[in-house]
Amino acid sequence: MRKILFTGLLILAFTTNALHAQKDAEAEKKIQSFLRYVELAYVDSVNANELVETAIRSVLEDLDPHSVYIPKKDVKRANEPLVGKFEGVGIQFNILKDTIVVVSPIPGGPSEKLGIKSGDKIIKINDSTVAGVGFTNQDVIDNLRGPKGSEVDVAIKRRGEKKLLDFTIKRDKIPIYSVDASYMAEPGVGYIKLNRFAATSMDEINEAMDSLKDAGMENMILDLRGNSGGYLNVAIELADQFLKDDQLIVYTEGRAFKRAEQYATKKGKFEKGKLIVLIDEGSASASEIVSGAVQDWDRGIVIGRRSFGKGLVQKEFKLSDGSALRLTISRYHTPSGRCIQRPYEDGKKAYYQSIYDRLDNGELVNPDSIHLPDSLHYETLKKGRTVYGGGGIMPDIFVPADTSRGSDYYGKVIRKGIINDFSLDYLDQNRKKLERKYSSVDEFINNFEDKNLMDKFIAYAEDEGVEKDEDEIEKSKSLLSNSLKGLIARGLYGSSAYYQLTNKSDDAFNKALETFKSDWFDQLETE
């Protein structure tokens, strides 16, 4: 109750004066006076720092859904995904049956250089046993991450080796990759899956595009599904790859920040050729800038489902104690003038809940369930096609979510992580045999067969507490099989292999391949 009272008073002080803070110093004085009186006269002792942090969070939450406060202890970790690197040993791991299992060493990292392999089990860290003692994901991170140049000793159990293998790993800067997959989807068609817009993303994308061009890429699928965004400048650089010189990519505008326009240059690597961008309800911010620019200039086809709808731009401001604010400073607009930000007047909780409501109201399976006012209709800049603002990017071609193969059984094995755990266990037992039998990704995808795979999985799931349900298993059989094979492929050949396999039964991906052969591109600017 005490915290609620203090927070309420601080919010009152902030919200009644914040808009005039630059002109009226009384707001700052009022807050300082309030804190001083509480510290001096309140009946119980209080922690002023805690009061201020609570107030900051509450005020930001009241402003908009994307302005956030980051405590000092969390600043570095919060920025790692966008900076594109952290310092540690360089492994992707999972905890399987109370044991740390290496899913894969990160390419170029210190663990890979020492010969640590996928499937290795970490039994000891610095002479302390870590298997069978209840280690959590955070415990692993706390023990294996550390400053560049520092060392950590690990003892590893490897299948086929009688004794534990000892490694001394010198920690280093570890890259966080943005490109999940890059491969030729079919002759002439390259595919790139991007998971975030980070500081290193363009280096990865340029490398992927060069490699695909060398392999004969004439047309491209850019998969931005589930990509929640990142750096604005990276979105601009990526859009520049597709647009012609001097075409507007995006403009931003805010109360304290004047209109700033960003234009394409002559350096685009893929200004010609057919382009398809895949989006869904998880595509946000920078993903919407790229897909919006491509759509507005009639440069390519956007396929999938309506994107998230985040049209606000944040800037990070450091506070005196090392904590930070990510404060919304402007709105961004696509070249046709669209701001795709969804309404958020009903508060943060309702704002995020509305994404889940899209399933309940039928939008994910039927685009007719989306109702946007005429005032949000815009026209593309070359062909005058109708596009929409005010609630995300509406795709040119709608692909419904496939709800027919889902089941309660499938939901349970996903939520419990059983599919992933089983694939790790299966690889641990069969890796050498699989590597001998399938020398390449294509061989695995085309020829892999284990007639007992589903039976083994069902038995494994039963041991993990998920009862067998034949009707639901039959309903989700293709989904389960595809997921299992994709994860096994990933463990053998890397993340691209997962998408090479699972995309074969992906509706949006297959619609993209079909669209390349249709007359859709006759109406666009592909030359």
TrEMBL record:
InterPro entries according to UniProt: ClpP/crotonase-like_dom_sf, PDZ, PDZ_sf, Peptidase_S41A, Tail-specific_protease
Keywords assigned by UniProt, alphabetized: Hydrolase, Protease, Serine protease, Signal
**Domain PDZ spans what residues?**
67-145
| GO cellular component: a single term | outer membrane-bounded periplasmic space
What's a single GO MF annotation on this record?
A: serine-type peptidase activity
Q: Which SMART domains match?
A: PDZ, TSPc
What domain of life is recorded for the organism?
A: Bacteria
Give GO BP annotations, semicolon-separated: proteolysis; signal transduction
Keyword Signal carried by entry: yes
Looking at the keywords, is rRNA-binding present?
no
Give the residue range of the signal peptide. 1-20
> Which Pfam families does the UniProt record give?
PDZ_2, Peptidase_S41
Q: Which family does it belong to?
A: Belongs to the peptidase S41A family.
What is the name attached to this protein's record?
Answer: PDZ domain-containing protein
Q: What organism does the record attribute this protein to?
A: Salibacter halophilus
